Amino acid sequence: MPASSESRRTPSVTSSIKRDGRKGPAVARRRIRRRRRVLARSASSRRTWQLWLPALGLLLALGGWQVLWARHAIPAYMLPSPASVGEKWWLLARNGMLWHHTSVTLKEALLGFGVAFVVGVGLGYPLARFDTFDALVGPYVAVSQAMPVIAFAPLLVVWFGLGLLPKVIICALIVFFPILINTIVGLRLIDPTLIEAAWSMGANDRQTLVYVEIPLMLRPLLGGIKMGLTLSMTGAMVGEFVSSSAGLGYMMTLGRTAYDIPMVFVAALMMALLATLGYVGVSLLERVLVTWE
Tens digits of per-residue pLDDT, 171-182? Predict the structure, then answer.
């Protein structure tokens, strides 16, 4: 009797195992879909926070600024109120003065960045790939960065005059080194076996550069571009401090000499806004271009 009852239970156990086996893939698929939905929601939540956190930081900074001004922690002639700066911004924007000086600074910064990018990438490639050239030129490049650019600025004005050229050169000298270093680092981080694999499949030097080296060095290079665009605004302002008749640096000098502190703040905040827009723009470009990681 016990044996017969055991034999009667055995088919039911076997059938349940078979049913569970058939349900297994379906259960796994449901779990995968559920996991994907959770990951999608978390990614959407992260993107939302990435959009709102900078705005929250800006509001906190404005709130702290307003509190400092209201409590007179800093004299009003040194720290104007956010409202007075906003009024000055609106006035300068309406009469066109702000946009004129902004366009001048932007032109100087972009031209200087373009020169620095061409020279930095063009010099960084042989420095990264040829040890002899690196040993010959590398120390002099490093020494050139040990000298402050602001010390050469008056000489550049004497040599090249008061026009656009000295400001572009000053901007290029400031931006050049980060782009150069990131180019060298990006190229040296590439696995040599990948380049050898491309050669073994018949790729020539141009094809290896276009299809292997440039894509793999893109992220470090874009990091240098982000830093360079930010520094290009600083370089343009340094050049305008030395000698200029237009630009945001000139507007800051004008406001300082006239004791118009809100004007100084407007020029400084406009400079910060331009640098931030350049950084964010390159970051978005990086998400579009670097898709394989």
Answer: 888 888 889 989
Q: How far apart are CA 43 and CA 165, in angstroms?
A: 47
pLDDT digits (tens, 9 = 90+) for 266-286: 888 898 888 888 888 888 888
Give the chain as a DSSP string: -HHHHHHHHHHHHHHHHHHHHHHHHHHHHHHHHHHHHHHHHHHHHHHHHHHHHHHHHHHHHHHHHHHHHHTTSS-TTTS--HHHHHHHHHHHHHTTHHHHHHHHHHHHHHHHHHHHHHHHHHHHHHHHH-HHHHHHHHHHHHHHHHS-HHHHHHHHHHHH-SSHHHHHHHHHHHHHHHHHHHHHHHHHTS-HHHHHHHHHTT--HHHHIIIIIHHHHHHHHHHHHHHHHHHHHHHHHHHHHHS-SSSHHHHHHHHHHTT-HHHHHHHHHHHHHHHHHHHHHHHHHHHHH----
CATH of domain 82-289: 1.10.3720.10
Q: Is the pTM of this model over 0.85?
A: no
Task: Return the domain boundaries, the chain.
Answer: 1-78, 82-289
